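Support case: MTE complex. Customer-provided input:
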Amino acid sequence: MARWRPDILESETTPEALWLRRRDFLMLGAAGALSLAWPERTAAAAAPSGAALPIARRAELAGGEASTPWDDVTSYNNFYEFGTDKSDPVQRAGSLRPRPWTVTIDGEVKKPLTLDIDALIKRFPLEERVYRMRCVEAWSMVIPWVGFPLGDLLRQVEPTSKAKFVAFQTLLDPAQLPGQRRAVLDWPYVEGLRIDEATHPLTLLAVGLYGRVLPGQNGAPLRLVVPWKYGFKGVKSIVRITLTEKQPPTSWSRLAPSEYGFYGNVDPAVDHPRWSQARERRIGEFLKRKTLPFNGYGEVASLYAGLDPRKLY
Ligand code: MTE
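Agent response - structure generated as follows:
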């Protein structure tokens, strides 16, 4: 593979047609490719690294399953701001500077907030939450996140009665996120939740994993974790959280509205137009297993009472 040169667009070095075909193979249609291409091992350390975080509480919410090894969690990633291959983020995330970092919470709130990331983290007791995580590409992991409930933060800014949705935005800075020089997605990466989803106690803002600060490739210094939704909802390296009255746009549904919906709820009965969601492969396992409704977090079902499951994708 050619070495990454942040000053050169990949589309300049690869014939356009090839580039587009390769792109199609990735996030947009990787199911077939996945069975052929097993995750490439990279130089990531086998043991957790980074500064240790003070953890006040722990909750094991993955049915007692062993966590996916650190090595896999931190070297097999989707983070298109570093490239579209699974091994790109671990190799390139060194250009991201997660400190100093400022996060703004604004929009339909009575007390908007702009805060340094470390001051933000100090406001909340950190929890370790072990969650199953399911990617729409039909692979999955079990990850011991460290973070705090997004709802705790939202309560502090006091949403107005007009706050119906929560919009999230990743940092926009091609110097730190060189993939933003290519028009793979509309940058910055944006995501959204309904306010009741955002304040559900399972919804986390993660600042670490395996007890350590989040590595760049996993979305340092702050990323969203919603365990009953497909991984693409888990927006990384967040700089802004805006409460809105109207449903906000989301990066993947803007790119391919027929393939990615606003909700992104895991549902084995609702296939992606191009591949089945019935089964998944846990990274590190050989045989596929059945995918569970809401990724096994059925307690959220009441949030969607009366809604057509096909609209919930
Ligand atoms: N956030 C940003 N900013 N950019 C991305 O490309 N990819 C999403 C999501 N968040 C992505 C992102 C997708 S498709 C997935 S599956 C998860 O991050 C992957 O998270 P992980 O690499 O920590 O497993």
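The longest strand covers residues 139-149.

Case will auto-close in a few days if no follow-up is received.
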